[in-house]
Amino acid sequence: MSLRWPAFLRAPCRPSWRALALAALLGVGVAAGQAPLGAWLVALPAASGLLALAASSRAGWIGFAGGFGYAAAAMFWIVEPFMVEPEVYGWMAPFALVFMAAGMGAFWALGAGLGARLGRGRTGPRVVGVAVGLVASDALRSYVFTGFPWVLFGHLWIGTPVAQAAAFVGPIGLSLLTLALAAAPWLARSPRGRALGTGVAVVALAGLWAGGTARLAAPEAPRDPPVNLRLVQPNAPQALKWLPEYRLQFFYRHLDLTAEEPAPGKPRPDLVIWPETAVPFLLNDPGAGLKMVAEAAGGIPVALGIQREEGRRYYNSLAVIGADGSVGRVYDKVHLVPFGEYMPLGDLAAEFGIAAFAAQEGNGYSSGPGERLLDLGRLGRVEPLICYEAVFPQDIRRVPARPDWLMQVTNDAWFGELSGPWQHLAQARLRAIEFGLPLARAANTGVSAMIDAKGRVTDELGMGVEGVIDAPLPPALPETLYARTGDAPVMALLALLAALIFLAAPKWRVDLAARRV
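Above: the chain sequence. Below: its structure as tokens.
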């Protein structure tokens, strides 16, 4: 008896291989809109084509293929951590890329498949349903399994005036606007109707662009009192960072950069910021390290990424070091990277005698007690973000009061130089827009940047550069609508749209049939 594939893997349940290849190619086109390319003129038509293809075929399959191509192109940097020690972990890299892309494909398949079922017709309702379903997949991916809101549809506008809409609708709302523009040309079947839909999308995009441009041009009150920061970028390659013969060398590099005199015309900084895990000692066992930091800073406080131990647990932390080397405010990272900084369910497994992955046994980091503000006196109240935490706007909203500014310390050396660090920077820019707050970003190998409250980079150090940024902290804006409401309104709107599509689909189908007659 010959072996046969399950029915859902065979035609007609599965689209043709040509259709799947086209969907994957369109997914790659959508990925072109993400950093570092930012080619939204390619991404938006590709998204529109993908919606039409999904609406006219097996939507779940098309969604899977499109999501697979999208993730493989936008997130190929996922192989970079395995290449830090290629002789040990390099063999895992292709599996990581394939499984990650398949995971993205699964989210898109779920969204596209369920969305198409809402529409029930073959044209307008199905296109709108697929669009709503894919936005819902962005929302789902942002929250489930601790969340992974990376390269959302709406992120393709970062760096354009359209991104200013995030101050009102946030990242999920920006995804909804994006796929609404992509769906508009397909709401009618006739060439004239499609031309009209395309025209409506162009006019809507022009309105968003104009509104964002006006917001960018609006004047801002200067910060009072002024705050000047020094961002230190030591450029310590990850493959060398913790080797015994290099650890002290990189620590001394931090000290030398901290002690540099400001360039002519630049004021003395009020605070020096070092990147994530910047020092080769623990906070609770520093030896002479913290006094050396204070001496290099010459009386200026230093905020630095450092690890600390408490019992058998370890924490990825940020500490503010005073003029005498004393430890001031401390923040422990809350939102850890699963499989990178800890193993999910590791502590639970320890209850059954399997302690190899348990953070409580020192095998990985433990999560801090919660998001918090650091009161730096005259420098204001700052919300610290350690690396990955800058991609979660919902976490930033959990602090008990509004911060005056955001501080991100990160080590993006794990992610190569081509796309991962630039996408991480793009997300930091979007957080600044969403909350109307400036963000100071110190990165180990780049990109360090000063970002204003409208997401503009006012100063930066690129990838693979050793140096400092001496720059004034830009002023904050009034609290944004998104900062007050979060994602709840957009989630409610998605649910309402899904209900309306389901209810309107039969009538829509009858209307289309009447037009054909």
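The longest strand covers residues 302-310.
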